[in-house]
Design a protein that fits this description.
single chain, alpha/beta, Rossmann fold, 6-stranded mixed β-sheet, 5-stranded parallel β-sheet, 15 strands, binds pyridoxal-5'-phosphate
């Protein structure tokens, strides 16, 4: 399997190079040159047997994307190691909370957010590939909260990796910040930027677009623009459907469009997905696109679901590339137009072909988020986090608006409630308890650097970390 860029002019490369590159040289994102078919997967791995583990299913679902670049047995071992770090034996358990209403719990990994599902595997892959190649890289990333801790946990023990993680100062929760700043490893650097998540993401993009700097510092990325993360997220859509034994709509709390894009890919390769609900908080650029063909950028406002406080959803580029029949030139010019004017629109027939009946946009404000958290707690004594609540609110609105009584809707539960204790307390009066392995998180000493929203300052810091 070879990988091509959504902007059409970067070198065509294989899986391991895509893993290490993150962003393509032409500023685009890598996608596989063709979509494999789930139906080609060996029957033995399709979960016919209840004893097939998540890791086994995962390695067979992802195998066509890796192709011959990593030996099958090695890849199976890396998947087994990555998913052994999860506290739940199912890794991604499916929990029924009402008639045809499910939560897919993706927060049983080390840092309590769904990002662990991809980043634990990414860490194992980096370690393996870099050791094979006798190479060292500098991972730089931006986080709206959860990527930072998950990326750091995924790679902290890699011998060949340094990591610099930018986060928007005062816009991540205490738990999220501490998961980055309390890691006592010399190769880990958490940096508070005086700006928003989009500012952080722009700084990362600018470092990648500076080729001289990028090469001199061996930059690499594990943000959700990294193909391997999207690939690893395809897995749980497929395993959830195998467990259900019937088709479903998925409701996905969305920020950078990575998770819901993985759902689209699962559907594209043959999973029985009836639809994808793109659930946003008040930062609803995506929702507005899925309602109106038109994406505009509004200023980002802080909400109770900070990991979704994103104005420019990077992974949308991969869907746009598909909508343009994989024309990288058109995709590139639409995106530079978007940068320039803050507006992106697609032709009505393109919209009808690709979006209508597949994607459904819904937004949810903080009051609705709190109301859903309170409602779930009073109905079933389950505490859910505010991101999950955005997804569930959207799921319920979608069911009601379309009278979908018999439709299974699975909401992706993207974070553990203890990651957002203030919101949970406000909604339910209950204080969620951190799992035992994080019990001392609030007492550990913190280590972080503060930098202005300034490219030169950030570049100088990154260079000093090598
Ligand atoms: C990152 C994150 C999201 C948004 O996911 P995207 O892939 O960026 O759309 C939603 N919820 C939580 C808890 C997250 O950490």
């Amino acid at each position: 399997m070879r990988y091509i860029s959504t902007r059409g002019s970067a070198p065509v490369i294989g899986f391991c190079d895509v893993l290490l590159a993150g962003l393509a040289r032409d500023g685009g994102l890598y996608v596989p040159e063709r979509w494999p078919r789930l139906a080609d997967r060996p029957v033995a791995n399709r979960g016919a047997s209840a004893t097939t583990s998540y890791a086994e299913r995962a390695s067979s679902i992802m195998a066509p994307f890796i192709d011959t670049e990593i030996d099958d047995k090695v890849f199976q071992r890396l998947c087994a190691e990555a998913y052994a770090t999860f506290r739940h034996p199912d890794v991604a358990p499916l929990v029924e909370i009402g008639p045809n209403e499910y939560l897919l719990e993706l927060f049983h990994g080390p840092t309590l957010a769904f990002k662990d599902v991809a980043l634990q595997l990414v860490g194992k892959l980096f370690d393996y590939v870099l050791t094979q190649r006798k190479q060292r890289v500098m991972i730089v990333g931006a986080t709206s909260g959860d990527t930072g801790g998950a990326a750091i946990d995924g790679v902290a023990s890699c011998r060949n990796v340094d990591i610099v993680m930018l986060y928007p100062n005062n816009r991540v929760s205490d738990v999220q910040r501490r998961q980055m700043t309390t890691v006592d490893a010399p190769n880990v650097h958490a940096v508070a930027i005086d700006g928003t998540f989009d500012d952080c993401q722009d700084l990362i993009k600018a470092m990648f677009n500076d080729e001289e700097f990028r090469d001199a510092n061996q930059l690499s990325a594990v943000n959700s623009i990294n193909w391997v993360r999207v690939m690893a997220q395809v897995v749980y859509y497929v395993t959830a459907l195998e467990k259900l034994g019937r088709s479903a709509v998925f409701s996905v709390p969305t920020g950078n469009f990575g998770n819901v894009l993985a759902g689209w890919i699962a559907r594209r390769i043959g999973a029985n997905i009836d639809g994808l609900i793109v659930a946003s908080n008040t930062n609803d650029n995506l929702t507005r696109f899925f309602e109106s063909h038109l994406m505009t950028t509004n200023a980002v406002v802080p909400t109770l679901s900070p990991s979704m406080d994103i104005g420019v959803p990077s992974n949308f580029e991969r869907l746009l590339f598909e909508m343009n029949e994989r024309d990288g030139v058109i995709t590139g010019s639409q995106l530079s137009e978007f940068r320039r004017t803050g507006k992106l629109t697609v032709e009505p027939d393109v919209y009808t072909n690709w979006i209508t009946g597949v994607f459904h946009g819904h937004r949810c404000n903080d009051d609705q988020t709190l109301a859903t958290m309170a409602d779930v707690y009073s109905a079933s004594s389950i505490l859910i986090d505010p991101h999950t609540a955005v997804g569930l609110t959207a799921s319920r609105a979608h069911r009601l608006a379309n009278s979908l009584h018999d439709q299974v809707i699975v909401t992706l539960a993207t974070a553990h409630p203890a990651k957002f204790p203030d919101a949970v307390r406000r909604a339910t009066g209950q204080t969620p308890v951190l799992p035992a392995h994080l019990a001392d998180l609030m007492d550990l000493p913190e280590r972080a650097v503060s930098l202005p929203n300034d490219l030169a300052a950030v570049q100088a810091f990154v260079a000093s970390c090598r």
